[in-house]
Design a protein that fits this description.
This protein is α/β, with parallel strands linked by helices. It is built from eleven helices and twelve strands. Helix 7 packs across helix 11.
């Protein structure tokens, strides 16, 4: 597959964190992408960029058919990232149903390449002390976590369409840092730690952090070099939460005592938080779904992407620093 100024490209999730950086990478390569935005969105961040704006709803099949018409490459980035059980229905509609719509529409319109943005959470979590890869079997099912379940179903929908003729590759990013984290995903770590005084509780698990710009570049590399029907982890640095929080505090110029709390305590606190907040009809800041991820070391390897795509993750601490700078200029 060749990506050049003549390639007709569609990006879903265009106003989200990774979507915006993907669009920037494409436009810098001389490509004018078609960007799929929701009916109710005002694409102010896109108006000044060299894009073709398509307004529609990914949960409506007819809109997906219209959006993919005359398109060569689809970057399906749209997703609902949440660990609130109350948003499970929305995640099923967008993450799973929306992906199935995009897959069916792309088959109907004979799209030449479909790059699906999944997540490492659609893979299994590795055993403690181990590092996972694309072959780590999915083992989140007993916990019934909406984000993991719907993203795994979406990934399966893409891979199951490959024998039907869809030339698809799957990218599995880890925890992304960088500017323009408009939905405050990884940026919420920075924002929360900026207010720490005294002691800070750390869960016993860990995560893999990566620069969102490295992931965006990896998506373009997957479009060109990815093998049909394959998954590629786009990650960076494996860190315990204590290591991550310590590094963020250092970049913030703050000092705090970090105390790692055992998994049963984290889970008990999450259950209590959900019970109290649900009774008060408030959104819980800590849920059991969040806790199940936080108590595990979600460490992964990107060696396959490096070897087959030419993927090269940048310095994730630079991305954290850029997240801090971006947050500082927000109103």
């Amino acid at each position: 597959m060749i990506l050049d100024k003549h390639t007709r490209v569609l990006v879903t999730g265009a106003t989200g964190f990774l979507g915006m950086h993907t669009i920037r990478m494409l436009t810098e390569s001389g490509i004018t992408p078609r960007v799929f935005v929701w009916d109710r969105e005002t694409p102010t961040l896109l108006k000044e960029s060299d894009t073709e704006i398509f307004t529609g709803d990914i949960t409506r099949f007819d809109d997906c058919v219209a959006a993919t018409r005359d398109i060569d490459v689809v970057f399906h980035v749209a997703a609902k990232v949440s660990f609130q059980p109350s948003e499970r229905n929305v995640q099923e509609k967008i993450n799973t149903g929306g992906t199935q719509n995009m897959v069916s529409a792309s088959l109907q319109n004979r799209v030449k390449r479909f790059v699906h943005v999944s997540t490492v959470n659609a893979l299994g979590y590795p055993d403690d002390g181990a590092v996972g890869d694309e072959n780590t079997p999915f083992n989140w099912t007993p916990f019934n976590i909406g984000y993991m379940e719907t993203k795994k179903a979406a990934q399966d929908a893409v891979l199951n369409a490959v024998p039907e003729g869809l030339d698809a590759v799957v990218c599995n990013p880890s925890t992304m840092f960088g500017p323009f984290d408009v939905n405050m995903n990884a940026a919420s770590y920075v924002k929360g730690l900026s207010h720490v005084r005294g002691l800070m509780i750390c869960p016993p698990g860990g995560t893999n952090i990566v620069d969102v710009r490295s992931v965006a570049r990896g998506l373009l590399q997957a479009a060109v070099n990815g093998r049909k029907g394959n998954c590629y982890i786009l990650g960076g640095l494996n860190l315990t939460y204590k290591e991550l929080f310590s590094g963020i505090l250092n970049l913030l110029g703050k000092r705090a005592g970090l105390v790692t709390v055992p998994a049963p305590v984290i889970l008990a606190a999450a259950r209590a938080c959900e019970t109290v907040c649900n009774a008060a009809k408030r959104i819980p800041p800590l849920t059991v779904d969040m806790a199940q991820g936080a108590i595990r070391k979600l460490f992964y390897s990107s060696e396959k992407a490096k070897r087959e795509l030419g993927y090269r993750p940048g310095d994730p601490w630079k991305a954290v620093s850029d997240t801090i700078k971006w947050l500082e200029i927000l109103p």
